[in-house]
Design a protein that fits this description.
This protein is α/β, with parallel strands linked by helices and 156 residues long. The chain is built from three helices and seven strands. 39% of the residues lie in helices and 26% in strands. The mean pLDDT is 93.
């Protein structure tokens, strides 16, 4: 697996999610299994099958999180340069299509949240911005069409 780039907060969130799944969620599912077993015949017990399925999904998610954590590289804000757009930078842009200023923070895939202005470095807009400097005009082929931006500011 390739490196998973995360902020310190993103890394800590993965650790917390993993801890929750390994403790509370496993206990909840174990209780569901016990309850379902008490209903008798396991061959035709929908509750038992549902609990087994939930247990399987939980274990898959635990393995996914453990793998991400083991391949995580934490982005150190103090080391991020602001002369060009890189992973971890916050970019203020002029959006020519909507004639307004927008701000995006370029994050790893696991921390992307477009509603909060956090976009994955794998997104079309971020890929178009990477490596560009202030005053560059960039076009991105996004699902909603060609987006045109001017880079106004790059910060941490």
């Amino acid at each position: 697996m390739e490196k998973v780039y995360l902020s310190k907060d993103g890394y800590e969130k993965l650790i917390a999610d993993l801890e929750f799944l390994k403790t509370k969620k496993r206990r909840e599912i174990a209780n569901q299994l016990d309850l379902a077993r008490s209903f008798g015949d396991l061959r035709e017990n929908a509750e038992y099958e549902a609990a087994k399925h939930a247990l399987s999904l939980n274990e898959i998610r635990i393995r996914e999180l453990e793998d991400k954590i083991s391949h995580a590289e934490i982005i150190k804000p103090e080391l991020i340069q602001t002369d060009k757009v890189f992973l971890g930078t916050k970019v203020t842009l002029w959006d020519f299509n909507y004639e307004e200023e927008v701000v995006f923070e370029l994050t790893g895939v696991d921390e992307a949240d477009p509603a909060e202005g956090k976009i994955s470095v794998n997104s079309p807009v971020a890929e178009a911005l990477l490596g560009h400097s202030v005053d560059d005009i960039v076009e991105a082929k996004a699902p909603r069409g060609i987006q045109k931006y001017k880079i106004l500011k790059i910060s941490r």
